[in-house]
Amino acid sequence: MGRHRGAGLGGGHDEREQTLNQLLVEMDGFESNEGVILIAATNRPDVLDPALLRPGRFDRRVVVSRPDVRGREEILRVHTRKIPVSDDVDLPVLARGTPGFSGADLANMVNEAALSAARQNRKTVLMWDFEQAKDKVLMGAERKSMLLSDEEKRVTAYHEAGHALVAAMREHSDPLHKVTIIPRGMALGVTMQLPIDDKHTYTRDYLETRLAIMMGGRVAEELFLNTMTTGAGNDIEQASDLARKMTCEFGMSSLGPITFGKKEEQIFLGREISQHRDFSEETAQKIDAEVRRFVDDGYNSARHILESNRPILETIAMALLEREVIDANEVQLIIEGKELPIKVNPNVPPPAKDDDVQQVLKPAPGQPNVAPGERPAQA
Ligand code: ZN
């Protein structure tokens, strides 16, 4: 309700604006010794009316960003308090494995883990349940009912293998997490990477690597199946967006550190409904050329990697067709030319470890250590 006044098409008698005016008047009525603290929250600080932010009104800002690794651990601790958690659940490990998760994502993950345990009539939630839940939150729910033809599966396997191999081979890329050809959400297959820790800035090397990884899927289709599919459409769209941002917003192209074009967010302010173009036709052509160059570089890098590692890509694609899901270790084994371990059924949790021994040796984090032989009461 604190939106910038005079924005949009309504006039000053807009009901929303009158509410804001009244709020400003009321806030000025507080005496400095009254001890009234007024707190408000917004997720659009950019459209706030400047009058709201003057001294004496909302004059301090506390930015609530996504939680860091310690924050995530504490949030997990809060949410797991109410569910019976098995001894093998290691919250610090989960916190480290979920960079970029918001508090709501973490709550969702704990909920999904509890559901997973309930579905199997288990009384405690295992670490395995949390791993399943993490993948569900990260990559979307598996759509096992969706039937793919053998040809579609084959194309998806090569496409994802292309992403995975480029991700594994390029420097500066986030480590692989999992590659799967089980449809999840809108995608037929997913290659998931997980950063090692929280990232706040991205280097140009990192972004160029991202472009190469995105192109890996299409390049694999071309090189190995001699075809092109619509499956790469989303990759191409994302790559084009990223390359344009690198040129127009991040100043990473040969055009130098200049931003081009006003951001679309301005439309919400209502100051300018049409997008403002602050560069000449000549510059527009240069921008297009730079965007193309970034994408082409990524494409060529992906092509080079896949062309010089043909047998490895074939093996990854075959492993995907056989197992449907392979993890980072398995990709690494294939790259090193080693045999993959026997496939374990991903739908069944690993056999329970000897709880009693573990309990004594390793108390759950945050819980008091227990004397040997003594079992703490647990649901
Ligand atoms: Zn793709």
Indicate the CATH class of the largest domain.
Mainly Alpha
How many H/I helical runs? 13
Bound compounds, each kind once, are: zinc ion
Q: Which superfamily, in CATH terms, is the homologous superfamily of the largest domain?
A: Peptidase M41
CATH architecture identity of the largest domain: Up-down Bundle
Work out the strand percent.
under 5%
Instruction: Give the spatial strand order of the biggest sheet.
Output: 2-1-3
The end-to-end distance, rounded to whole angstroms, is: 47 Å
Topology:
Blueprint: H1 15-28, H2 69-80, H3 91-96, H4 103-119, H5 127-139, H6 150-169, E1 176-180, E2 190-193, H7 204-225, H8 233-248, H9 266-269, H10 281-307, H11 310-323, E3 325-327, H12 328-335, H13 355-361
Antiparallel strand pairs: 1-2, 1-3
Helix pairs in contact: 2-4, 4-5, 6-7, 6-11, 7-8, 7-10, 8-10
Zinc ion (ZN) is lined by residues 159, 163, 217, 232, 235.
Features:
binds zinc ion; Methane Monooxygenase Hydroxylase, Chain G, domain 1; 3-stranded antiparallel sheet; 2 domains; 379 residues; flat; mainly alpha; 47% helix; Helicase, Ruva Protein, domain 3; 3 strands; disordered C terminus; 13 helices; single chain
What does this entry look like structurally?
- The protein is flat and about 75 Å long.
- The model is unreliable at 266-273 and 353-379 (pLDDT under 50).
- By secondary structure, the chain is mainly α.
- Helices cover 47% and strands 3% of the residues.
- It folds into two domains: 70-139 and 338-367, Helicase, Ruva Protein, domain 3 (Orthogonal Bundle); 150-335, Peptidase M41 (Methane Monooxygenase Hydroxylase, Chain G, domain 1, Up-down Bundle).
- Bound molecules: zinc ion.
